[in-house]
Amino acid sequence: MKKYIHEREDWPSFIFEESLIKNAVISLHGAVGRLYGKLDALGFDVQSELLLNTVSDEVITTSEIEGESLNRSSVRSSVAERLGIEIAGLAYVSPDKSAEGIIDIALDATQNCSSPLTEERLFAWNAALFPTEYSGLRKITVGEYRKEDISILSGAMGKEKIHYIAPAPKNVPEEMNRFLFWVENIHNIDPYVKAAIAHLWFESIHPFVDGNGRIGRAIVDMLLARAENSSERYYSPSAQMLSERRDYYKELELASGYLGDTTRWINWFLSCIMRAVKFSDDRLEISKHKARLFERIRSIPINPRQVLMLNALIEGFDGNLTTKKWAKICKCSHDTALRDINDLIAKKMLTCSAKGGRSTSYELQY
Asked: Could you report the per-residue pLDDT of 199-258, keeping only the tens digit for each?
């Protein structure tokens, strides 16, 4: 019968070979330092834009990993409102009530990162995820540790594959007491390695009936914020984990096995965070271009449709921008779309694309 990490005699001892993670640790510290160095040299508008994108991504993707889709526009509006950020071209959309809880958790984990991680705080996070006390169509107990056995399964009913069996519910309070003590009192470990181990440890306990993945990733955000002494997040671990979801689950499953050595998991986690930082660094360049573009047009009158489309273009428009697409997105006539485009060409904001094709397309002119 398959055994799991919590059944080891030395549990919860997380063994890893320091020499095999040393390079990844050094590289990550350097990459994060360079990202924050670039941010310090930029204006408030660029920092705010990146902050809004990062927090919104974290909220949306940590839910999407669990199979829950949130409305991006609604999340961005709600996050911007809470952070007091005004972004050009960002129209307000009514908040999605199902997103409010995960937004609360994301902001509490980072903005209050120095506050102790306690049982009460975790209970509040869990309750915030399920305000109706329903997970889908199933009524669940929230705001307290689980009182039922938990197994991680996949496959059709009757043909399920068991990936992991969590500790018995009677052991969860003691397991969590040890985990919380370690989080708050053990500091003789690199903070990024600590975040890697904390995520694996929490997911191995799986203390709640539901919401463990989202809460586990919020704990990662909290520990990263502590590591960087910053309550503002400029890269999203959850977004990167979503893009690598298959590997994420595979590595967690391997690390949760009976062998107990966590070197491979830590290396994967650190490299995943490194890729998240790299993505954010690339996005920072986009934000810089966007800031420069809107700085140019502050004194030039443009209408809301033009603001909307300029934002879409600089953030990465899907495919080629044509008059037909402009009219469809802006819900206006073809003639109105063409007037908008020609006006921006005259103002040297747009230019005809050199890519060619069956229809004339347009791109930004920096």
From this structure: 999 999 999 999 999 999 999 999 999 999 999 999 999 999 999 999 999 999 999 998
Residue pair 17/263 in contact by the 8 Å Cβ criterion: yes
Local structure of 45: helix, strand or coil: helix
Q: How many Cβ atoms from other residues are within 10 Å of residue 186's Cβ?
A: 10
Q: Are 245 and 65 in contact (CB under 8 A)?
A: yes
DSSP string covering 307-351: HHHHHHHHTT-SS-EEHHHHHHHHT--HHHHHHHHHHHHHTTSEE
Predicted local confidence at residue 72, as pLDDT = 87
Collapsed DSSP state (helix, strand, coil) of residue 78: helix
Would you say 127 and 142 are in contact if contact means Cβ atoms under 8 Å apart? yes
196: left (phi over 0), alpha (psi -120 to 50) or beta: alpha
Q: What is the pLDDT of residues 287-329, one digit of tens each?
A: 777 777 777 777 788 999 998 898 888 767 778 899 999 999 9
Closest CA to 101 of 130, 63, 60: 130
- Tens digit of each residue's pLDDT (9 = 90 or more) over 91-116: 556 656 778 999 999 999 999 999 99
Q: Which two tokens stand for residue 86?
A: 């005004």
The one-character DSSP state at 7 is G
In order of their start, the domains of the chain are 5-288 (1.10.3290.10), 302-364 (1.10.10.10)
Question: pTM of the predicted model, to two decimals?
Answer: 0.83
Q: Is it the case that residue 35 has pLDDT exceeding 80?
A: yes
- CB pairs under 8 A, 24+ apart, for 146-150? 146/172, 146/206, 146/207, 146/208, 146/209, 148/209, 150/206, 150/209
Tokens 């490194």 — which residue? 274
- Structure confidence at residue 157 as a pLDDT band (50, 70, 90): confident
Name the token pair of 205. 């306990």
Q: Which pairs count as long-range contacts for 350-358, CB under 8 Å and 24+ apart, including other chains?
A: 353/320, 355/320, 357/320
DSSP 109-164: HHHTTTS---HHHHHHHHHHH-TTSEETTEE---SS---S--EEEESSTTS-EEEE
Longest dimension (CA), the chain: 74
For the chain, what percent of residues have pLDDT higher than 90? 66
